[in-house]
From TrEMBL:
<dbReference type="Pfam" id="PF02775">
    <property type="entry name" value="TPP_enzyme_C"/>
</dbReference>
<dbReference type="InterPro" id="IPR051479">
    <property type="entry name" value="PorB-like"/>
</dbReference>
<dbReference type="InterPro" id="IPR029061">
    <property type="entry name" value="THDP-binding"/>
</dbReference>
<keyword id="KW-0670">Pyruvate</keyword>
<protein>
    <submittedName>
        <fullName>Pyruvate synthase subunit porB</fullName>
        <ecNumber>1.2.7.1</ecNumber>
    </submittedName>
</protein>
<feature type="domain" description="Thiamine pyrophosphate enzyme TPP-binding">
    <location>
        <begin position="87"/>
        <end position="250"/>
    </location>
</feature>
<keyword id="KW-0560">Oxidoreductase</keyword>
<dbReference type="GO" id="GO:0000287">
    <property type="term" value="F:magnesium ion binding"/>
</dbReference>
<dbReference type="GO" id="GO:0019164">
    <property type="term" value="F:pyruvate synthase activity"/>
</dbReference>
<dbReference type="InterPro" id="IPR011766">
    <property type="entry name" value="TPP_enzyme_TPP-bd"/>
</dbReference>
<dbReference type="GO" id="GO:0030976">
    <property type="term" value="F:thiamine pyrophosphate binding"/>
</dbReference>
Length: 383
């Protein structure tokens, strides 16, 4: 069995200095913290880049992610920043013509060319001698992982001076919850198999966009979620200290598309981290430099059950097999990225993680004759 990768914990100065005052909770006593260690969102004088009046759904993770990220980027750029926005939920709910909820210079691009428009904006500003004005591009997973991938790869290859932020809600939510390249295995959407032996998104499809960005060896790549504000702010601030292409992939739960309660957005984002299904890390020049460690490993069922898009997983005759395959995906992430310290694991959990197969999604097996699917149950066969 392969050992768990040894990874460095991401050290965030603001978080290291703040004490948690409720044992077992994630609440922080901001009023008791020194001003320099408070989060940007706790500052009553902060810049509200995305202000009131937008039409996002209640509990929208993308609205949270965009506000947190762009507020931080604007502050880091000292107000000298322009945002390029791909078509999608964020654009539609924030700018119903002729109104806008943005208080910064903002430009709407097509669904697939936000990276190209941003690269042009950065080049134009540089040509005018205004390279002190920073450029941030943003879009959903559809406009990033799928439709916009060619333009984004070109931006990475040229190392254009743009920070691209993907708000990943794992489907095309704006147009009716269609499957995207970021839709997880077994999740049900409007365009995945509704019934049959294996409903929901098939296991052999999808893209890992942060790793694709890392393959371009750009200066900075990071993942984050709306569940850890200090981590997200830290990574945006750090990204803004670089010049060249940078990529930030933020998980933003969608109550409408995920079929979850609107008050569970942050909880689900946190469970995505704690299960290992969404590894949180940062990388520089193509190499992972630090990860967010999991303090309390959670089973994937805790993350899947509150979401109606996974309801069929718990009802089908092969539900145990499907859950085992999803758990194996999480365990492989834990092992690959070193998300847990080995000496902190219970023996049975350690054994399960170390036994995680190298192909839990079945991508390699699908290429074999007969489309073989590996057994990930780790249970002995019985007659």
């Amino acid at each position: 069995m392969t050992e768990i990768t040894q990874s460095t914990q991401t050290e965030i100065p603001a978080r290291e200095q703040v004490k948690f005052y409720q044992v077992g909770s994630f609440a922080v006593g901001n009023r008791l913290a020194d001003l320099q260690w408070r989060s940007l969102q706790s500052d009553p004088n902060r810049k509200n880049s995305l202000t009131s009046g937008h039409r996002a759904c209640q509990g929208c993770g993308e609205a949270l992610g965009a506000r947190y990220a762009i507020d931080t980027a604007t502050t880091a750029a000292k107000g000298k920043m322009v945002a390029i926005n791909a078509t999608g939920c964020l654009e539609v709910f924030s700018t119903p013509y002729p109104e806008t909820a943005w208080t910064i210079p903002w430009m709407h691009s097509l669904f697939g060319n936000a990276a190209a428009v941003a690269a042009g904006a950065a080049a134009g500003l540089k040509a005018m001698g205004k390279d002190d004005i920073r450029v941030v591009a943003q879009g959903g997973d559809g406009g990033t992982v799928d439709i916009g991938m060619a333009c984004l790869s070109g931006m990475f290859e040229r190392n254009d001076d743009v920070l691209f932020i993907c708000y990943d809600n794992e489907a095309y939510m704006n147009t009716g919850v269609q499957r995207s390249g970021a839709t997880p295995a077994a999740a049900r959407t409007a365009t995945t198999q509704p019934v049959g032996e294996h409903p929901g998104n098939v296991f052999t499809q999808g893209k890992d966009m942060p790793r694709i960005a890392m393959a371009h060896e750009i200066p900075y790549v990071a993942t984050a979620t709306v569940a850890d504000l200090r981590d997200l702010e830290y990574k945006v601030q750090k990204a803004m200290t670089y010049r060249g292409a940078r990529y930030l992939h933020v998980l933003v739960p969608c109550p409408l598309g995920w079929g979850s309660n609107s008050n569970l957005t942050v909880t689900l984002a946190r469970l995505a981290i704690q299960t290992g299904l969404f590894p949180v890390y940062e990388a520089e020049n193509g190499e992972i430099t630090s990860v967010t460690k999991i303090r309390r490993p959670a089973p994937v069922e805790a993350y899947l059950k509150p979401q109606r898009r996974f309801a069929h997983v718990f009802k089908g005759p092969d539900s145990r097999e499907v859950l085992a395959r999803i758990q194996a995906i999480a365990d492989r992430n834990i092992k690959r990225y070193g998300l847990i310290e080995m000496d902190s694991l219970d023996e049975d959990v350690r054994e399960r993680i170390l036994s995680a197969p190298d192909d839990p999604a079945g991508r390699f097996a699908a290429a074999l004759p007969g489309r073989q699917v590996m057994d990930v149950s780790n249970e002995p066969e019985t007659d």
